[in-house]
Amino acid sequence: MTTLTHRARRTEVGKNSEKKVESEEDTNQDRSPDHEDFSDSKDIRLTLMEEVLLLGLKDKEGYTSFWNDCISSGLRGGILIELAMRGRIYLEPPTMRKKRLLDRKVLLKSDSPTGDVLLDETLKHIKATEPTETVQTWIELLTGETWNPFKLQYQLRNVRERIAKNLVEKGILTTEKQNFLLFDMTTHPVTNTTEKQRLVKKLQDSVLERWVNDPQRMDKRTLALLVLAHSSDVLENVFSSLTDDKYDVAMNRAKDLVELDPEVEGTKHSATEMIWAVLAAFNKS
Questions:
Q1: Number of alpha carbons in the 13 Å side-chain half-sphere of residue 259
Q2: Mean of pLDDT over the chain
Q3: Would residue 271 count as lying in a domain?
Q4: For 107, phi and psi rounded to 5 degrees?
Q5: What is the pLDDT of residue 50?
Q6: CATH number of domain containing 170
Q7: Could you tell me the sign of the dihedral formed by the alpha carbons of 257, 258, 261, 267, in that order?
């Protein structure tokens, strides 16, 4: 489970520090969770998985932190949210016996191809699986965290490398070979720093200049990316370039956001249930 930490060189700052940063309301209207929305990038369209990996990569070195053991499951959670936002899957309706997000099964809404190999591979697994599974179980199966040998077929392999190759094709990363004493490793340094900075700026603005203090009024893809960045333990990378005051405000607001009760938020009008179900799954793990 990931944690949100504060920079060690500063004294603890409470939530009152938010007063130091002006906020203005976001006038964007809520968007349908079933609508594929890439409006934040007019030139390059990125999936949630590509955005999470891009945030986690070291720009020059081209690899994620060796100490990050959260990003693999975070990427799988991103796949489920992406499929839900594209109208391919959804959570079964709540019943008296299955009210909680984590108790409800993932159901197929459409099996039409998305054009993304990882998404379509996952969609194929979901379509073929009987009985249906929950969000938490799917994250575990797609990551390969299962003791059932018959379920290992659902594991998505080489996910980071496959996502990185997509980013290479989109002109954001390049491919290099680096020698690490005992072994060679393929790395993917960032070449399009403008695109990464755009992504970082979008997330920073969402908890600073465009903070609305209500997840239901936030852009759904931005909300999903904040949840996934937290779950993948890459949120520190997003806020590290901020000044001390803004860093504290951003961290406090992000902390407040991911500590909301997913069961409550998921029932609100226009909420994207899959986002909150994925957060609930990571909170439980």
A1: 8
A2: 86
A3: yes
A4: -115, 150
A5: 97
A6: 1.10.3630.10
A7: positive
